[in-house]
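Colleagues,

For the teaching module next term, I've prepared a clean inverse folding example: a structure given as tokens, and then the sequence designed for it. I'd like students to try predicting residues themselves before seeing the answer, so please don't circulate the second half yet.
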């Protein structure tokens, strides 16, 4: 049975839901054993060489992956560089939520970002993100204020955001396609 490692970082839970979905579906549909690791809880370095494929994932905040993911990438940089099997990267991103900008942010937040660590990926995808202005939101007052200020004044942003509720721009068909493309890569 093939095995896949997924390492992720998620500040508000958006990316965590995505990678959990991808991993469950991969186990059931793809008959692949998945090890899902939250980079925040990672104590020691991992031996990544034993896997048949790796997915690296993060939510984006102020243009960046989470600090724990950056730490993971830095520590495993050489191993990832030497890894001969498929590596994929995916992110949840507010800017990538607009279909016309998806390709641009896929390039920037996955392929280009990984290249800064010397890591070459076989597959990259930016998914839309979540802007949660509801009462129970994990964003908190500070983040809600920043997003409102940024988005309301930026005319290039075409998203119709409701500043009173939860806006979920994740495209689950796109997420499932990413999963299926990755399964195909590791089965080749
Ligand atoms: C303070 C703040 C800054 C953000 N900055 C960016 C950004 O620079 N680019 C982007 O595409 N999305 C940005 N976002 C949107 C997030 O990417 C989106 O909320 C995503 O779903 C978060 O994923 P997570 O819950 O897994 O951390 C920002 C969100 C917040 C709250």
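(Answer key — instructors only)
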């Amino acid at each position: 049975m093939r095995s896949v490692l997924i390492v992720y970082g998620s500040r508000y839970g958006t990316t965590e839901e995505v990678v959990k979905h991808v991993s469950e579906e991969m186990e059931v549909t793809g008959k692949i054993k998945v090890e899902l690791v939250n980079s925040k809880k990672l104590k020691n370095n991992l031996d990544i060489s034993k896997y048949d494929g790796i997915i690296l994932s993060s939510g984006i905040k102020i243009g960046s992956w989470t600090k724990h993911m950056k730490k993971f990438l830095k520590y495993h940089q050489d191993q990832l560089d030497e890894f001969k099997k498929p590596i994929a990267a995916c992110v949840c991103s507010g800017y990538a939520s607009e279909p016309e900008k998806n390709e641009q942010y896929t390039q920037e937040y996955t392929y280009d970002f990984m290249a800064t660590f010397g890591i070459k990926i076989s597959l990259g995808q930016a998914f839309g993100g979540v802007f949660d202005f509801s009462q129970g939101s994990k964003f908190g007052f500070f983040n809600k204020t920043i997003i409102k200020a940024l988005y309301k004044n930026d005319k290039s942003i075409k998203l119709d955001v409701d500043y009173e509720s939860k806006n979920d721009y994740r495209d689950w068909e796109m997420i499932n396609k990413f999963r299926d493309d990755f399964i195909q890569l590791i089965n080749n």
